[in-house]
Amino acid sequence: MAEGGKKEENMAGRIRKLDETVVNRIAAGEVVQRPANGLKEMIENCLDAKATQIQVTVKQGGMKLLQIQDNGTGILKEDLGLVCERFATSKLREFEDLASVATYGFRGEALASISHVAHLTLTTRTKDDKCAWKVSYSDGKMTSPPKPSAGNQGTQIAVEDLFYNVSTRRRALKSPGEEHAKIAEVVGRYAVHNARVGFTLKKQGDTTTDIRTPPASTTLDNIRTIYGPSVAKELMEFACEDTKLRFKAEGYISNVNYSVKKCTFLLFINHRLVDCTALRKAIETIYASYLPKSCHPFLYLSLEMAPEQLDVNVHPTKHEVHFLHQDAVVEKIQQAVEAKLMGSNASRTYYTQALLPGAATVPSTVTGSGEGESEGTAKSGTKGQGEKERIYAHQMVRTDSRDQKMDKFLARPGGSKSKETSSTNNEDEAAGNNKVEGLEGEENTNKLTTESNRREIKLTSVLTLRQHYEEGCHAGLLEAVRNLTFVGCVNPERALIQHANRLYLANTSSISEEFFYQILLKDFGNFGLLKLSSAASIKELAMIALEQEASGWSEGDGSKEDLASYVATCLSSKAPMLDDYFSMQFDDDGNLCTLPYLLDDYVPSMEGLPMLVLRMATEVEWSNEDECFQTICRELAKFFAVPREQMDEDNDEEDKEDKKGEEVKEKKNKGDGEDGLKWTIEHVVYPAVRKTLLPPQHFAQDTTFLQIANLTELYRVFERC
Predict the structure, then answer these.
(1) For labeling, which of 1, 349, 363, 596 is most exposed (least CB within 10 Å)?
(2) pLDDT tens across 599-644, in order?
(3) Name one GO molecular function term (predicted).
């Protein structure tokens, strides 16, 4: 028995030839990595067939169906048996032909690879055929002889159930939405480069198309259609040629007025969509001196060179190419881009501010090197040197977001709420802890976390939550927030703000709540300490909250004492996590000692502290990490937000009259406090909001930003009067 086992062990280490099916599936995984790769290969086959119209139809991001149809030359019936054979091609005869290949699908691997990992059906008709021929393939072979079928001239390829027999590869694919986006990116790039060909992309069953470009259009028109008019209007035509290095480059590059967070680089070398890291970095280095930090350009380049200088056979997907004198070619193109950008300074937009009192302070367009006067609103500086565009009265903006008021530099109304307090021990002094006297909220201005000791958070849940609010930003409102001018407080909950020639009634409570929520995610795990001078009992805070009507307590929930004990036990058990990530420290007796420090010179209303403690124990989803962090941040954001006005819902008129008299006395006593809150809203909250808030989509749909006046419309009314 032992002898047989030893013989079997030796056989296991022998070198054996893999089964042909396994070999082909491994090779297919190299060529077709995702639906977009397979589509790229098929588009190139359509272009080789001299098609002028290419239509792509997908279902579930190409994983269920990926169909492409063209009106090219078609495939002869006699050649259908070789279509899905590996290394069967009409482009090469000998190895030396690779040195001068000028077509796309020259290796004959695309359709062969797809047939090994999907169900492939092909319908084709040539110009001389009386009917189309339909045939299905599996593992590179025809499953049945070609059958006559109805069809127009050209070829239609339907790929169904991609990676149905390679479960690991199928599970590694992204969501259908992301895969569809990658398909749209491939179609869009080929549509830009092949302006003479009409491209159409749509989802199966949809009546509308995601991409549609007409045949015989222009490159610039296709860029405008696919990437938007905001990109197209900022593009400059680019050309570069060198006879010594034997190359020619042309295309479109964005000027210095356009920038995005991610570089869009469309590179075609000898009409093949590829990527060249060296060229990309070289061009971005030039733009770095013209664009703001973390901003990038839009680039479309078509590079042509002698075929013998190019090695196209270095990557299974032909995504990368190598060519001779690469460093010299890259340097030449880099110099040409720099020269083009230097010559485009005449159309760059500058903003200036008058230095003398009484002079105009409205942003203006300054051409050339930036000389000129500030007058009117900013327009694109496309006029000649020294020319000024006429600004009409109804277009003028009377205020500027960069203006400042004197009261910002004076003491807060009712005395400064922000004062220095001496630390009681060396540890507090070293850490820069923020003191809060009782529940009144007196604090010093030191912050705990600095850039030098800031830690990097790599938790997937936190990164996902950050991504959600970044992707959900409303672009139109973002411009209004970044350039808002604070007009004044209507009350602590609402304020008037201005953007351009529009006046808005803004809900400060909703805005500040979203602002603090984003701060809690952005600075997650890096907060300073807002230290209470005397620790507050969690149980007592919970009892105070349960006495409030807003808690929603009823007798069916059990006794308040038991609920308060549960709140204290729950938060004490989560103390290490709350301390590490949210700077909420608890002592051994179940007392709350600190809160996170979120914004300089801002202390939240401590009246909401009992409800915060209660809601953190009852409303936070502690069992799921994503929901846990999200709900904690939401509850803390509600606590830190500017308080909302309390609506009086009492219908008893006598009680209202009694309360009204008490409110008058209370307002007299707290008048200074309300003035101080309004000062904080104007000089602390809104400047921070203007700098960092990313307004979500729902702000444009609810009454958070309510437009109440438009200078242009008002001007028309008064003009008629």
Answers:
(1) 1
(2) 988 889 888 999 999 999 888 988 889 999 999 999 999 999 998 8
(3) ATP hydrolysis activity
CA angle 348, 352, 358 (to 5 degrees): 150
The CA distance from 353 to 159, in Å, is 61
d(CA 213, CA 136): 30
56-65 per-position pLDDT tens digit: 999 999 999 9
* Predicted confidence (pLDDT) per residue in 226-261, tens digit: 999 999 999 999 999 998 888 999 999 999 888 888
CA-wise closest residue to 640 among 466, 511, 457, 526? 511
Half-sphere exposure of 319 (CA within 13 A, CB side): 13
pLDDT band at 404 (very low <50, low <70, confident <90, very high): low
Ordered by start, the domain boundaries in the chain are 20-212, 228-346, 422-454+528-597+605-634, 457-524+641-645+666-721
Q: How far is CA 638 from the centre of its chain?
A: 26
Pick the CATH number of 457-524+641-645+666-721 from 3.30.1540, 3.30.930, 1.10.357, 2.60.120: 3.30.1540
* Residue corresponding to tokens 């909401």: 608
Position with higher pLDDT, 440 vs 339: 339
> What is the model's pLDDT at position 389?
53
In whole angstroms, give the CA distance from residue 518 to residue 633: 8
Report the Cα–Cα distance between both ends of the chain, in Å, rounded: 111
The whole model's pTM is what?
0.47
- 460-469 CB contacts, 8 Å cutoff, 24+ apart: 461/625, 461/626, 461/629, 462/521, 462/524, 462/629, 464/626, 465/521, 465/626, 465/629, 465/630, 465/633, 466/521, 466/522, 469/517, 469/518, 469/521, 469/694, 469/696
The alpha helices in 228-276, defined as continuous H runs, are: 229-232
132-138 and 264-269 strand pairing: unpaired
What is the assigned CATH class of domain 228-346?
Answer: alpha beta
267, β-bridge pairs: 274, 301
- Measuring CA to CA, which residue among 634, 583, 638, 629 is closest to residue 605? 638
Whole-number Å distance between alpha carbons of 304 and 325: 14
Say which CATH architecture domain 20-212 belongs to.
2-Layer Sandwich (3.30)
Q: According to the model, what pLDDT value does residue 549 have?
A: 87
